[in-house]
Design goal:
62 residues; 1 helix; 74% helix
Length: 62
C-alpha cells in the first residue's frame, strides 16, 4: 500500500498534467481562432481588391 506521501506526490503530478493539458487546449483554440480570423480578413481583402483564388482580376470584386 502506498504511503500518504507517495499518494500525495501522484495526485500532485496528475494535477500538473491536467493543468498542462488544459493550457495546451486553450492555446490551440486561441491559435485556431487567430488563423480563422486571418483567413477571413484575407478573403475580405481579396474581395475588395477584385482578386479570386485563381489569380484572375475580376475588377469590381464580384
Amino acid at each position: 500500500m502506498p504511503t500518504f506521501q507517495e499518494t500525495d506526490a501522484h495526485v500532485a503530478h496528475a494535477r500538473r498534467v491536467l493543468a498542462e493539458m488544459t493550457a495546451r487546449a486553450v492555446e490551440d483554440t486561441r491559435e485556431a481562432e487567430q488563423h480563422r480570423s486571418q483567413e477571413l480578413n484575407d478573403w475580405h481583402a481579396q474581395d475588395h481588391a477584385g482578386q479570386r483564388d485563381d489569380g484572375q482580376d475580376y475588377g469590381d470584386g464580384y
